[in-house]
Write a structure and sequence with these properties.
This protein is an alpha/beta fold. The protein is about 25% helix and about 30% strand.
C-alpha cells in the first residue's frame, strides 16, 4: 500500500491518500482546508477514490468532505461516537470565524476493530478517543494514521468539547504504544519548524515528554 501525504491549509493539516496499485483505487483521509489539490493529484495519477475517512470531525479535518463526496461518489466513513462533533460543525465554524461547511453526513459508521478496504488491502479501525469522543486511527502493515491523538514529540489537546486528558493518555498507552517500535506514525498535523510530518512508536515511547 502506498501512502501519499499532503500538507494543506493554514493549520498545516496532513491529508492522506492510501493507494492500492493493483486496483488503482485510493481512500482519502481527512480532507482539510485546501485539500482540493489532493483530488487533482489523484486524478492525474489515474486513481479512483473509493472512500473518504475522517479520523475525527473537528472542522479543520472535515472542511472539504462535501467536495470529495460530490466529485467522487465515495462513502464518508467515521467512528460512530463522533456524531456529536458532526452535529456541531456550524458552531465550530463560528469559533474559527469561517462560513459553515456544506453538510456531509457519514454513511458508514465504524466500531473498534472493524476493517476499512483500500482496494484489495485492508486497514483496521482503532477507536482512539481522548482528543475527541470518536477519534479513529487506521492501522496498516507497519504504520498507523492517528489523527490528532499523537504527534512527534507531543499529544493532542483535550480541552475541546468531548476531550478528556486522562482518557487520551490511556488511549495512547493501550492502543498505540503497544504497537511495535518500528511502526510509522502518521499524525494529523505537521511541524513547519522542524519539517517533521511523521514519527515512530518507538521514538515517542522513548522521548515524548507528555508520555
Amino acid at each position: 500500500m502506498e501512502i501519499l501525504q499532503y500538507v494543506v491549509g493554514p493549520m498545516l493539516n496532513l491529508c492522506y491518500a492510501l493507494i492500492d496499485e493493483e486496483t488503482r483505487s485510493a481512500i482519502v483521509v481527512d480532507p482539510a482546508f485546501g485539500s482540493a489539490v489532493v483530488l487533482d493529484d489523484l486524478r492525474a495519477r489515474g486513481l479512483r477514490v473509493t472512500g473518504v475517512v475522517n479520523t475525527h470531525a473537528h472542522l479543520d479535518h472535515v472542511a472539504e468532505n462535501a467536495r470529495f463526496l460530490a466529485e467522487t461518489d465515495a462513502p464518508l466513513i467515521a467512528h460512530e461516537d463522533e456524531r456529536s462533533n458532526y452535529a456541531s460543525l456550524d458552531a465550530q465554524a463560528a469559533w474559527f470565524g469561517v462560513p459553515p461547511p456544506e453538510p456531509a453526513e457519514p454513511s458508514v459508521w465504524l466500531r473498534d476493530g472493524e476493517k476499512v478496504s483500500v482496494g484489495n488491502d485492508e486497514l483496521t479501525a482503532l477507536h482512539t478517543p481522548g482528543h475527541s469522543p470518536g477519534g479513529l486511527s487506521l492501522l496498516g502493515e507497519g504504520f498507523v494514521l492517528v489523527g490528532d491523538v499523537l504527534f512527534a514529540g507531543s499529544i493532542g489537546r483535550a480541552d475541546l468539547p468531548g476531550g478528556d486528558q486522562e482518557l487520551l493518555i490511556s488511549t495512547i498507552r493501550t492502543k498505540l504504544l503497544c504497537l511495535p517500535d518500528e511502526t510509522i506514525v502518521y499524525p494529523g498535523h505537521g511541524d513547519s519548524a522542524t519539517n517533521t510530518h511523521r514519527t515512530t512508536i518507538g521514538r515517542e515511547r522513548r522521548t515524548n515528554p507528555f508520555l
